[in-house]
């Protein structure tokens, strides 16, 4: 039994070092003493739509779907973004769609993001 536990801890530690388990705690237990079901990266991929930033060097996150609104952050080129939905906004080089992203409660211009999945309107 002790050997199994050591092996499980070693495997979990190695997987976390490789980023396979994410930030979920390994030793967490519920009130019943059982380990809770861990959320996996597959859950995140299924939960929302994805896009990849294609702008150099990246894209600004705005508070509203316009370049005149407050800057809330920045996403560098090549990063995957989780998109909640799309809205009409200010035209950016021929594209008036903006993506709403929940991670920063803001918007990014669709012109600078290649959507991987179908993005519904809000």
Walk me through what this model shows:
It is a single chain. This protein has 122 residues and is of the alpha+beta class. It folds into two domains: 2-39, no CATH class; 48-115, SH3 Domains (SH3 type barrels), CATH 2.30.30. It is 19% helix and 34% strand. It has two helices and eight strands. A three-stranded antiparallel sheet has the order 4-1-8. A hairpin with an 8-residue loop joins strand 2 and strand 3 (71-76). The longest helix has 16 residues, at 2-17. It is globular, with a radius of gyration of 19 Å. The protein starts with a helix and ends in a 7-residue tail after the last strand. Mean pLDDT is 76; it is low at 15-32 and 34-41.
What is this entry, summarized?
The protein has 122 residues and is an alpha+beta fold. The chain contains two helices and eight strands, in the order ααββββββββ.
Quick tags:
122 residues, alpha+beta, SH3 type barrels, 3-stranded antiparallel beta sheet, 19% helix, globular
Topology (elements, then pairings):
Blueprint: H1 2-17, H2 41-47, E1 49-53, E2 58-62, E3 71-76, E4 80-83, E5 85-92, E6 95-101, E7 106-109, E8 113-115
Antiparallel strand pairs: 1-4, 1-8, 2-3, 5-6, 6-7
Quaternary status: single chain
Placed side by side, the strands forming the largest sheet appear as 4-1-8
- Overall, the morphology is globular
- Compute the number of helices: 2
Number of strands: 8
Q: Taking all residues together, what is the mean pLDDT?
A: 76
Give the class from helix and strand content and strand pairing: alpha+beta
CATH topology of the largest domain, which one?
A: SH3 type barrels
Radius of gyration: 19 Å
Low confidence ranges:
15-32, 34-41
Mind telling me which CATH architecture of the largest domain this is?
Answer: Roll
Termini gap: 52 Å
Helix content percent band: 10-25%
- CATH C-level name of the largest domain: Mainly Beta
CATH superfamily of the largest domain: SH3 Domains
Q: Beta fraction of the residues?
A: 25-35%
Q: What count of domains describes the coordinates?
A: 2
